[in-house]
Design goal:
Blueprint lengths: L1 E6 L7 H11 L3 E5 L10 H6 L4 E5 L7 E5 L4 E5 L10 E6 L2 E7 L13 H19 L7 E6 L12 H4 L7 H13 L3 E2 L14 E2 L6 H4 L2 E2 L2 E5 L7 E6 L15 E5 L1
Parallel strand pairs: 1-2, 7-8
Antiparallel strand pairs: 1-14, 2-4, 3-4, 5-6, 6-7, 8-12, 9-12, 10-11, 13-14
Helix pairs in contact: 3-5
The chain binds one DNA strand of 15 nucleotides through loops.
DNA sequence: ATGGTTGCACGGCAA
């Protein structure tokens, strides 16, 4: 089974890109974030035509929004809300016995101080609540995949400059610690770093603001795929599709692919 | 130290 996660930054602007991606990768399960559209306006037909007969969407006007498109049947589809907000950041479905969690963590604004910046406080609380939920609630014994835009680049090699990013939201020690707590909640395994050694630089996002994103290459690895330990032996590969950052018009994030047997 | 771009929706906010 091939799973792909992609923060598309508007699904309605990414129809052609999704067609290209589908042709290149033929995912079985496609998890999208930042769809930026209410459910009645979601481009269902375009995904149906690509062969994704099973579609779960949870979107709102203009912001956020997650979706799971699948060639295989989706069971037990549900959403979760966090921090007392209905903001369409977490969609859950079971595919072939695997519980898939499509997640979009709040970006956190510009100032990495929870006292000064409510959006940063929201990001930290979001991690805390999701981590506590995975730890405390009975989630049964289904193997699980958690994937999406987690908006944190945890390793030194996940950013273009560890030194210069220390005080930049997405790479601060406090966020990395919160993300580590979430990862510890179910002993999640970083599926991508199982194949790309932590010594190797790896990014999934490049700002729109760079004059030449590829030349300056000031990227961050914000998008992740994690699996519960019993799934780790079933991982056969993982890769980041850097080239889509050059497609027009581009999302600022690129897809991450994981294969399971 | 600052400003740089994009998307939604059509002004300003979030990323």
């Amino acid at each position: 089974m091939r799973l792909v996660t992609w923060n598309v930054n508007s699904v309605r602007l990414r129809i052609e890109a999704l067609q290209r991606l589908d042709q290149a990768l033929r995912p079985d399960v496609l998890c999208l974030q930042e769809t930026k559209v209410v459910d009645p306006l979601f481009p269902r037909d375009a995904l149906l035509e690509l062969g994704y007969a099973h579609l779960a969407v949870s979107g709102m006007k203009g912001y956020n929004g997650v979706a799971i498109a699948s060639r295989l049947p989706l069971e037990d589809v549900r959403t979760q809300s966090w921090c007392d907000r209905e903001d369409c950041r977490h969609l859950i479905a079971t595919v072939d016995g695997i519980e898939v969690h499509c997640l979009y963590v709040p970006a956190g604004g510009d100032i990495p101080d929870a006292e000064l910046n409510p959006r940063f406080a929201h990001k930290l609380a979001f991690f805390d609540q999701v981590a506590a939920w995975f730890r405390q609630a009975d989630h049964g014994d289904r193997p699980k995949v958690l994937l999406g835009d987690l908006n944190v680049a945890p390793l030194e090699t996940d950013v273009w400059s560890h030194k210069q990013m220390q005080k930049v939201v997405s790479h601060t020690p406090v966020e990395i610690a919160r993300m580590a707590e979430l990862q510890a909640s179910l002993d999640w395994v970083d599926a991508v770093r199982a194949f790309v050694p932590p010594s190797e630089r790896l990014y999934t996002w490049w700002s729109y603001r760079a004059a030449d994103w590829s030349l300056s290459d000031r990227g961050r690895r914000l998008d992740h795929v994690w699996v519960t330990p019993e799934l780790a032996p079933r991982l056969t590969g993982a890769l980041v599709i850097r080239e889509t950052r050059g497609w027009l018009p581009p999302s600022d994030h690129v897809p991450v692919v994981v294969d399971l047997v």
